[in-house]
Amino acid sequence: MSIRLKELRKGKKLSQEEFAQKFNEFVRQRNPIELHDGKGNVKQITYSAVSRWENGSVVIPSVYYKSLADFFGVTVPYLQGISYDANDILMFVNSDYFDHALGSNAPYTDKLTFELRKYFETIGKPMPETKFTIEELAGFTDDVKKYWRENLGFIFKEEPYKSYLLNSDLSKTEILNIVTDAIETKKLRITETPISKAFDDICNNDLYFWKNNKDNLIRFASKSDIQGAINHLQQSLNAFSDKLKDLPENKDITFKFPNGLKATDNDKHQ
User: Fold this and answer.
1) 127, 122, 90, 86: which is closest to 109 by C-alpha?
2) Over its length of 270 residues, how does the chain's per-residue pLDDT go in tens digits?
């Protein structure tokens, strides 16, 4: 918590003495009851108290948590160092991308790096490594921060990702998984076509069921239930096939169906 306090104070470009003065003015105006000294007066902090809080020699009294958080415009969990703000999250993304695209784990590409690259291609933005030097990316400079905020700022504005990322006590891994999902969803939304929309409307529920229940279904369900699930999926795909005939062609044709999968043995015998 002492580290966060120091970061927040420096972020406001205040010396310890200036911070103590401005914070005292802030609490005098708000008059929070938890800071009353028993005589009806609001407790004041001193420059030396701030110094001891920041160097960790004295633990910040819990009665100050709410007022400190309000002063800096953050949550109490963030002030305590148990949650992250937008800048922290973008730093995690930058670090993960650097590590997997350029650093010690290169050329291994994890799902986040893959989705980031596909998203930048979709929106026509340059890849980070073409815009910045390795030293700039490793140092997470102000220009690098601006780049990530301009291109990924939507994750802090759009629900449900905004609430997940900024109002929850998540681990770094959980945060990166949510960011990956948000980027993938955004990319799909940007590239949506009449065909993709019709497919999602008609088939998504059945495909979601198969994706999440296939292993249990084929191992632990009766043959009649398995056949029922197959029939339901076939009905959805047939309905989509009928709808497809009346839909306009996709404009951006970049994917080809593999020749080896175009006909099954059953198809050949029909």
Assistant:
1) 127
2) 667 899 888 888 899 999 999 999 999 998 888 888 877 788 889 999 999 999 989 999 999 999 998 888 777 877 887 778 888 899 889 988 888 877 655 555 688 999 999 999 999 999 999 999 988 988 889 999 999 999 999 999 998 888 888 766 777 888 899 999 999 999 999 999 999 999 999 999 999 999 999 999 999 999 999 999 999 999 999 999 999 999 999 998 888 888 766 555 455 444
Amino acid making up residue 81: G
* DSSP calls for 144-213: HHHHHHHHHGGGGTSTTHHHHHHSS---HHHHHHHHHHHHHHHHHHHT--HHHHHHHHHHHHHHHHHHHH
pTM, entire model: 0.63
